[in-house]
Write a structure and sequence with these properties.
This protein is mainly beta and 130 residues long. It is built from 1 helix and 11 strands, in the order E-E-E-H-E-E-E-E-E-E-E-E. A hairpin with a 5-residue loop joins strand 5 (49-55) and strand 6 (61-64).
């Protein structure tokens, strides 16, 4: 069974940066490398929303929510079974618990749909103050 653990969250002032990491266990590097992965976030009182997604099969392709385009960057290290989210120019509205998710390919246009992902981590909290 695949197990995801997020880390790297914390408190930062507006304009600052954070790098989140998601480590996957219980999965071979081969299966991990062919999986689609994503970051979601959920702010208090709001629904969980897609932030960014990535797949390497057959070619590397990424997708971002409009709200983070140009500020966040998703990447992965398939040899280490890790997923990353580099967050720059953070804003108070980025405050949320961030979750990583993994599932089988392909990466569909509806990747931002929570129901399109079956395996989730427990999240890491990001707080951005003005």
């Amino acid at each position: 069974q695949v197990h995801l653990v997020e880390s790297g969250g914390g408190s930062v002032q507006a304009g600052g940066s954070l790098r989140l990491t998601c480590e996957a266990s219980g999965i071979s590097t081969y299966t991990f490398s062919s999986s689609r992965m994503a970051w979601f976030r959920q702010a208090p009182g709001k629904e969980r929303e897609g932030v960014a997604a990535i797949i390497n099969t057959p070619l590397t392709r990424t997708a971002y929510a409009d709200s983070v385009q140009g500020r966040f960057s998703i990447s992965r290290d398939n040899a280490e079974n890790r997923l990353y989210l580099q967050m720059n120019s953070l804003k108070p509205e980025d405050t949320a618990t961030y979750y990583c998710a993994i599932d089988q390919p392909p990466l569909s246009p509806n990747w931002e749909n929570v129901g399109a992902w079956n395996t989730w981590g427990k999240g890491t909290l990001v707080t951005c103050s003005s």
